Amino acid sequence: MRHLLSAADLDRDAAVHVLDVAEEMAATQRREIKKLPTLRGRTVVNLFFEDSTRTRTSFEAAAKRLSADVINFSAKGSSVSKGESLKDTALTLEAMGADAVVVRHGSSGAPHRLAHAGWTRGAVVNAGDGTHEHPTQALLDAYTMRRHLRGGTGDLAGAKVVVVGDVLHSRVARSNVLLLHTLGAHVTLVAPPTLLPVGVEAWPCETSHDLDATLLRGEPDAVMMLRVQAERMDASKGSFFPSAREYSRRYGLGRERLGMLPDDTIVLHPGPMNRGLEISAEAADSARSTIVEQVGNGVAVRMAVLYLLLAGEIPGGDA
Ligand code: CP
């Protein structure tokens, strides 16, 4: 596999291989090993056309812990503001020599274009494209679940995962559904009808509009709360939910719903969070919450992805 563009690029063996290698990379996260020499002399370009805190910094940390040289590019403050295109930006950075390009872009499909248009010879990693996919987020979420569920045995087959909230605008939800299905988990998406995408019936998961019924009936192993992405909501299309208070009442994770969960159910959120909207401070900061741990796990997972792509060691997928 040359690029990681979609969670669907990974079959079960490839996904498990990435997660197993991430376990080994986590030694740097625990600071048992400071740095690995694996990517010495290689260059990783972080090409970010949209804002990011976790993904950009964790890819930077991952590349540096593998001894790669890192070029960080943010569209803000660059010649993109003068109208320079993705193609010309990519060609400019390619001229500086990129072995891997980690790209986040507001347009769904931009990483596919970059990978297949010949604008870079490097491996392309999708770090989030529009409302489409965020495969490394799904990998770090699966990695986090593997560490907690089933006594940390690493097997997610049969695990019950409930994903709640703004699925319509969420690249995290789509990538998680695809990857968790590949790993044998059972996913239920819970959202108001206005925040489920057209065609969701074809996704390999169940859907519901009733969070309380889903939590009570399902006894989930993991509950993943999604950010309400106000910046992607088109005001001209009307309101996506009656009010913040009503959304929170029907779909937010607060004290009452925390109390409905089995004792060992974990709570995930990809961040950034709208505290008080989709998740209360009590839930976000509770002992069940893996939200801060997810960020740290992201470094190990991204180390594994960069290492395996540049070593050509992930079989199959997007060649
Ligand atoms: N989860 C995630 O993609 O966060 P950032 O937008 O901060 O990278």
UniProtKB/TrEMBL annotation:
Presence of the UniProt keyword Transferase in the record: yes
Binding residue positions for L-aspartate: 82, 171, 227
Enzyme Commission number, as recorded: 2.1.3.2
Protein family per UniProt: Belongs to the aspartate/ornithine carbamoyltransferase superfamily. ATCase family.
The entry's keywords: Pyrimidine biosynthesis, Transferase
UniProt keyword annotation of Transit peptide present: no
Subunit structure as annotated in this protein's UniProt entry: Heterododecamer (2C3:3R2) of six catalytic PyrB chains organized as two trimers (C3), and six regulatory PyrI chains organized as three dimers (R2).
Organism: Kineococcus halophytocola
The reaction(s) this protein catalyses: carbamoyl phosphate + L-aspartate = N-carbamoyl-L-aspartate + phosphate + H(+)
GO terms for MF: aspartate carbamoyltransferase activity
Residue intervals of the Aspartate/ornithine carbamoyltransferase Asp/Orn-binding domain: 158-309
Pfam families attached to this UniProt entry: OTCace, OTCace_N
Matches recorded under InterPro entries: Asp/Orn_carbamoyltranf_P-bd (IPR006132), Asp/Orn_carbamoylTrfase (IPR006130), Asp/Orn_carbamoylTrfase_sf (IPR036901), Asp_carbamoyltransf (IPR002082), Asp_carbamoyltransf_Asp/Orn-bd (IPR006131)
Protein name as catalogued: Aspartate carbamoyltransferase
Enzyme class label: transferase
Pathway it works in: Pyrimidine metabolism; UMP biosynthesis via de novo pathway; (S)-dihydroorotate from bicarbonate: step 2/3
Functional summary from the UniProt entry: Catalyzes the condensation of carbamoyl phosphate and aspartate to form carbamoyl aspartate and inorganic phosphate, the committed step in the de novo pyrimidine nucleotide biosynthesis pathway.
Domain (Aspartate/ornithine carbamoyltransferase carbamoyl-P binding) ranges: 2-146
SUPFAM superfamilies on file: Aspartate/ornithine carbamoyltransferase
Binding, carbamoyl phosphate: 54-55, 104, 134, 137, 271-272
